[in-house]
C-alpha cells in the first residue's frame, strides 16, 4: 500500500500526502523513500504543476521519525561491509532531500525551480522534521499539542538526513547546538523561534498552497545556496565563529563528560561541515552518522530506549487473556511526598483519586502538592485555570477510610514499617470491594511478607514509584509469591494510563532497582574509607554518563535512609549479612548529624540556601587521602561491576524475567550509563569473556562482592551474549 500519494489541482498545485497505513503516526520506510522520490519526480516533470505542498494524512501529526528497520536494510544489503551500506543508504536520503531543496532549478544559476512547501498539521520529529527543513517554506498548524524537533540524540544517534547541517547553516552553531544536543521537542511557537517552522497558520495546507502560487524565484534559494552566504555567528575560521565553536565544544563536553559517542560525532560533523561547501558538508554528516550507527553504543541505546521501552509500554510482559484493567477510581493511602505525587499523576491521567491520611490537615497538604504543581504550570503558560480546576476536582482529600468504597485499585504509601502497613492493609480490605487490587509502594520490604496481612494475597502486588513521582519515568511492579495475573495486568494498565514505563519483577529484598543502586552508593562510600578522593569517585561516575556520582547521590537521598536500610537488612539477614566499611562510615556520619542535603550537612558542605559549596573536608580527617590515587578506569570499573553483577544475579535468580526490563529499568530508574543501553547491554559491549576475567581480578583485589556469577561464567565459556541467549524476540519466535 502507498505511503506517499500525489494529487494535482486545477490551480497547478501538486499535493504529496504522507499517510502510512496502519500507523497512528507516519514513519519513514524504505518503500516510503522510493514513493516520495517518484512523487517529486512526477511533480517536477509536469509543466502544469506550478508548485508542491507536502503534508500528512494523519490528523494532528506530520511524522514521528524513521522506521529503524530501514537502518537494518541498509546494513544487510551491503553484506560483509555494513558500514558501506549505511553510508550509501544515508547518501540516498541526502540526494532525495537535496532534490526537493533544489526543486529542478539550474544548478549554476539557481533559477527555474518549483516552490515546494511543507504543511504540518502537528508533531514532526526526526526525519519528519528533516524533510520539511529541505523544503522552501514550512507552515505549521495552530496545534497546542504538537511538538517539533530533532530528538535523535536521545536514542544514541544524531540527525543524519541533513537536519544537522541544515540547522547549523540556518541558525548558526551556537543556536543549533542545544537543539541538536538536547533533542528537546518544542511547541509550535518555540519551534518558530528556533527555526524549525517558518509560519504558523490556522490552515497550513491552504497557507502553503497560497505561498507556492505566489513565491518568487528568490524565495526558492536557500541561504547556503545563495552567492556570498555567511554562516550565522561565523564559520570556524572566522574570529567570532572560532569562539562560537570553542564554546559549542565546551558545552558538549560539559553536558556529556565525553561519555556519549553520538554527541562527539555530532560536534565533529558540525565543525568539519562548517569548513566546506554545503554538499560536502552533507557527505561529512553522512560519514559521522555511519560512524555512530556502527558503534555498539548506538545499537544498544536504540534497542533499550526506543524499541524495548516502547515494547514494555505497549504490554510486552502483560499476562495474556486478561481483559482491560484500566483504573477508574484510585485510593492512595498516605499523603506524604510519595502519596501526593501518585495522586498528582493519577489525576493528571483523568483518574478519580481518594487521598487518605491520618487527619484532614495532612490529607489537604497532600492535595496542595498538586495545586502547587499546577500553579507553577500556570505561571509557565502550560496549564489553564480550567485544567487546574478539573484536576483538583478529581482528588478527594480525607481521613475517612469509608471514602475508599468503590475503588478498583489501592496504592498504599504509608510509613515504611511492616506493622503499620499490615494494620492499614487489614483496615482497608474490610472496606474496599472484593475485586479491588491492593498495591504497596514500598521500596525495600518484600511484597510476599507484606501480603501475609491480606485476606486475598493473589490481589496483592507491589507498585514501586521513584521520587519525585511526577518526574521519574519508571515504575517497578513487584509480584509476590501468590500475586495473580489480574493484579499484574491491573498494575500494568494503570502505569500505562499515567504514561510511565513499567518493569515487572519477582519478589526479592530490594527488588531490582534498589538491589543495583545500593551497591553503587556503597562502593563509592567504601572507596572513601580506602582514601580515594570523593572528587575522583563522583567525576569517574559522571564520565561514565551517570547523572550524579554515588557520593552526591547519597547526599541527595539522605544518609540516614542509607543507615536505616543497612540496619533493616542486617536484622533480616542475621549472620549472613556482609559487614562493610561503607556501613561504618554511614553510621558515623549519621551520629554526627550530617544527614545530607536535607540537613545542609553531609558528604558536602552547604550554604544557607542549600547550595553545595564543596566536599566536607572532615571526611579526610577520619579517612586520609591516599598519596597515590587509583587509576580512573579502575574506579569506574568498580562502580560499574558493583551494579551489573547484581543485574546478572537478579536474572540468574529469576527476579528479572525479561532482560529488556533489566536494561530499560536501570537507565530510567537511576540513569545507568545511558550510552551503554543498560547493565546487560554493557556486558554485551565489553564481552562476557572479558567481564568474567575482570570479575576475577576485582575479586582478588577487593573482595567477594565482585565474584563472577555462575551464569556469567557459563556464558563467558561459551562466548555468549545476553541478547543472543535471552533475546525475548527470538524466544517468542521459537
In brief:
The protein is α/β, with parallel strands linked by helices. Helices cover about 50% and strands about 10% of the residues.
Q: Your description of this structure?
A:
With 734 residues, the chain is an alpha/beta fold. The protein is built from 32 helices and 19 strands. The strands form four sheets. The protein has an eight-stranded mixed sheet with strand order 12-11-10-13-14-15-16-17, sandwiched between helices. Strands 1-2-3-5-7-9 form a six-stranded mixed sheet, with helices on both faces. Strand 2 (13-18), helix 1 (30-45) and strand 3 form a beta-alpha-beta unit. The longest helix is centred in the N-terminal third of the chain and has 21 residues, at 82-102. It is globular and about 85 Å long. The two termini are 29 Å apart. The model is unreliable at 730-734 (pLDDT under 50).
CA(first)-CA(last) distance: 29 Å
Low-pLDDT stretches are: 730-734
Overall SS class: alpha/beta
What does the overall shape look like? globular
Index terms:
eight-stranded mixed sheet; 32 helices; alpha/beta; globular; 734 residues
Summarize the helices and strands and which ones pair or pack:
Elements: E1 4-8, E2 13-18, H1 30-45, E3 51-56, E4 61-63, H2 69-77, H3 82-102, E5 116-120, E6 123-125, H4 127-133, E7 137-141, E8 148-149, H5 163-171, H6 173-182, H7 188-194, E9 199-201, H8 204-214, H9 217-220, H10 239-256, H11 261-273, H12 278-294, H13 296-313, E10 329-333, H14 337-348, E11 352-356, H15 360-379, H16 385-393, E12 395-398, E13 409-412, H17 418-429, E14 437-440, H18 447-450, E15 460-465, E16 474-479, H19 485-497, E17 501-506, H20 513-529, H21 534-542, H22 550-557, H23 559-573, H24 581-591, E18 604-606, E19 612-615, H25 618-622, H26 632-652, H27 659-670, H28 679-686, H29 688-702, H30 710-718, H31 722-725, H32 728-733
Parallel strand pairs: 2-3, 3-5, 4-6, 5-7, 6-8, 7-9, 10-11, 10-13, 11-12, 13-14, 14-15, 16-17
Antiparallel strand pairs: 1-2, 15-16, 18-19
